[in-house]
Amino acid sequence: MRLVERYIFGTTFWAFVSALGVLTFMIWITQALREFDLLTTKGQSLVTFLAITGLGVPSLVMIIAPIALFIAVLYSLNKLNSDSELIVMSASGLSPFRLMRPFALLTIMAALVVSIMSVYVMPWSFHALRDLVTEVRSDFLTRVVRPGTFTTLDQGFVFHYRERGPNGELLGVFMQDRRDPEKVSTYLAELGQTINNEDASYLMMEKGSIQRQQPNSRDAALIGFDSYAIDLAQFGADAGSITYKPRERSTADLMRLKPDDPSVKQQYGKFRSELHDRFVNPLYALAFGLIAFAALGQARTTRQGRSSAIVTAIIVVMSVRIAGFAASNLAARSASGVLVMYAVPLVSVVVTSFIMFGPTIPLPRLPTFPLMRPRAA
Question: PANTHER family from the entry (predicted)?
Fold first, then answer.
C-alpha cells in the first residue's frame, strides 16, 4: 500500500471508529436510562446494571457499523475534496481503482466485524441477557418485594405475599395477571418459593387455586392444585413463552430447526427471517461503503457543490435500509421474502459499481465472421 493510500486509510479508519463509538454510546445511553429502575426500584448493583445494558451493545454495533462506515467514507472524501488533495491525486495519475483500495479495505473490515457480531456475538449476548434478566426478576421477587404490599412486576401483573416463613418461603401468595384483558388469571397459594435451574427460574406454589376468567363471559374457571410452578421469565416481554426467541438462539440452532418442530412451528417464519438476516447484515456494509464512494469519489473543484451529492447518498442509504427491514418482515411471512432480503443490498452493490466503473470498464470485442464483414465497393 502506497503512502497516499495509507494516509487515506488512516483518516477513514479513525473517522469510522469515532463515528461508531459516538453513535453506539448515544444509543446505549438512551437504552440504559430505560433500565435505570434496576438501581432505583429493584435494588440491583451497578455491576448488574452495566451487564444488562452492556449485553445489548453487540446488536447496536451490528446495525450502526455500516452507518458509521458510510459517515466515515463521506467525511474522508469530503475532506480530501475540500483540501484539494483529491484533485492533486487525480492530476498525478491516481486511478479511481487505486483511490478506492483503502476504502475497499476498510469496507471489508467493517463487513467482517458485522459478520462476527451478527452470526456469533449478538445471539450469545441476547441469550446471556435473557438468563440474566430472569435471574434479576427472581432476585427482585424474593428479596426486594416487601411483605404485605401489592407490587406491580409488569404492566397488569400484581404480586403480593403476606409474610415470610422461617426458611425464607413466601406465605399467603397472591398474583393477578391482567396483561391480556380476555384471559385474566388470579393465583392464590398458601406457600411459595423460588427454584433455580440451569435454564430458568420458577416460583413454586403449594396448596392453592387458579381462577381464570373465560373470554366474553362473566363465568370463571376455578382450578385447585397441590403444587404449581410459574416461569419467572413471563414477567417481561417474553410472557407466556418458555422457549428462547429467534434472536436468543445461536446460528447453528437456527440452521438445524425444522418446520414441523412443535417448539417453533407457529413462529417458523420469524426464525427463518432471523437466520437469513444474520447473513444479510454484512452486505449492507459493502453497499453503504460503495454508495458513499460513488457520491464523492470523483475529484471536484471548490466551485462544484457537493451538498446535493451528500444529500442524495443519505436518501439512498435510508431507502436501502428501510427496504431491508421491510424485506425481513416479508421473509417472516413468506419464503419468497428471503430472496428479497439478499436482493436489496446486492442490487445496491451492483448498481453502484456500474455507476462508478461501468463506463470505464473495457468491453471485449466480439469476433467478426466473413458474412458479417462489409463488401468491398
Answer: SLR0882 PROTEIN-RELATED (PTHR33529), YJGP_YJGQ FAMILY PERMEASE (PTHR33529:SF6)
Residue 369 CB neighbours (<10 A): 7
CA 93 to chain centre: 43
Do residues 324 and 280 lie in contact, with contact meaning Cβ atoms separated by under 8 Å?
yes
pLDDT(181) > 60 = yes
Strand stretches in 178-314, DSSP E: 185-196, 201-213, 220-231
Predicted pLDDT of residue 141: 61
pLDDT digits (tens, 9 = 90+) for 327-344: 999 988 888 889 999 999
DSSP per residue, 1-27: --HHHHHHHHHHHHHHHHHHHHHHHHH
Q: 326: closest CA among 374, 273, 364? A: 273
Mind listing the pLDDT tens digit for each residue in 137-152? 656 565 556 778 787 7
Q: Give 371: exposed, middle or buried? Use CB within 10 Å, 0-12, 13-18, 19+.
A: exposed
Counting every residue, how long is the chain?
A: 377
Task: For residue range 263-273, list pLDDT tens digits in order.
Answer: 677 788 888 88
**Residue 47, amino acid:** V
H or E element in which residue 119 lies: none
DSSP string, 221-235: EEEEEEEEEEEGGGG
User: In which residue are the cell numbers 431491508 written?
Assistant: 324
Domain residue extents for the chain? 145-235
Most confident listed range (10-24, 83-97, 200-214) = 10-24
Within 8 A by CB and 6+ apart from 78, the residues are: 296, 306, 310
Return the H-helix or E-strand segment holding 265. none
For residue 98, the number of C-alpha atoms closer than 13 Å in the C-beta half-sphere is: 13
Query: What are the DSSP calls for 248-263, one per residue?
Result: GS-HHHHHH--TT-TT
In the chain, how long is the greatest CA-to-CA distance?
116
Q: 3-state class of 197 per DSSP?
A: coil
Q: Is 313 exposed, middle or buried (0-12, 13-18, 19+ CB in 10 A)?
A: buried
Rounded Cα gap, residues 292 and 188, in angstroms: 62
